[in-house]
Amino acid sequence: MKWLLPLLLFLLPTNSKADVPPTLAERCVQHYAAHYRVPPELIAALIDVESRWNPRALSNKGAMGLMQLMPATARRYGAMQPFDVEQNIAAGTRYVTTLMWEFRG
Q1: Which residues are known catalytic residues?
Q2: Which of 8, 32, 33, 105 is 20 to 30 Å from 41 at the Cα level?
Q3: What is the spatial distance between Cα 92 and Cα 10, in angstroms, rounded to a whole number?
């Protein structure tokens, strides 16, 4: 009986990261990071810190979505539906890029 568990674990298919298709959010991060020429790791790290990848995140101050955009910032950078994953990442990445240019040394 002790040999049954290792045998089952060996026979069960395993999913590696390469087998799992990227989520919409991950595809959007890759796309908009490339479009705005910023490291996708930076955008992913911001999302991780701001919302923990929850597209419905809402702060007590009113920041919304994955990148925690305030309503005026969301509108200014084109996210008319700030809880929409693609609009939020597109606007947030554009905003971050604008800040990077504004405060570059």
Answers
A1: 50
A2: 105
A3: 44
